[in-house]
Amino acid sequence: MIRLMGLDNKEFILNADNIERLDAIPESVITLINGKKFLVQESNDEIVEKVIMYKRKIYEGNFK
Q1: What is the DSSP string of the chain?
Q2: Cα–Cα distance for residue pair 45/34, rounded to 1 Å
Q3: CATH code (residue 49)
Q4: Radius of gyration, alpha carbons of the chain
Q5: pLDDT tens figures, 3-57
Q6: Residue span of the structural domain in which 18 resides
Q7: Domains identified in the chain, total number
Q8: Is 9 left (phi over 0), alpha (psi -120 to 50) or beta?
């Protein structure tokens, strides 16, 4: 799960395993595997880094 900030300045948590696609228009648009889309303040690079950190925690067994 990754923490993101919507364009309404509200934080939400997204299951990173459901991300199918990232686009920039210039906001980042996250498209999930079910077709639902989210506009967020983070850049695509920031989202990718958050997903990498999330996956790293899972594989290392570090859930803190």
Answers
A1: -EEEEBTTS-EEEE-GGGEEEEEESSSEEEEETTS-EEEESS-HHHHHHHHHHHHHHHHHT---
A2: 22
A3: 2.40.50
A4: 12
A5: 999 999 999 999 999 999 999 998 999 999 999 999 999 999 999 999 999 999 8
A6: 2-60
A7: 1
A8: left
Smallest Cα–Cα separation from 26: which of 15, 36, 40?
40
Q: Which two tokens stand for residue 31?
A: 């498209």
Q: Which amino acid is at 57?
A: K
Which residue type occupies 13?
A: I
Residue 60 to residue 10: CA distance in whole angstroms: 30
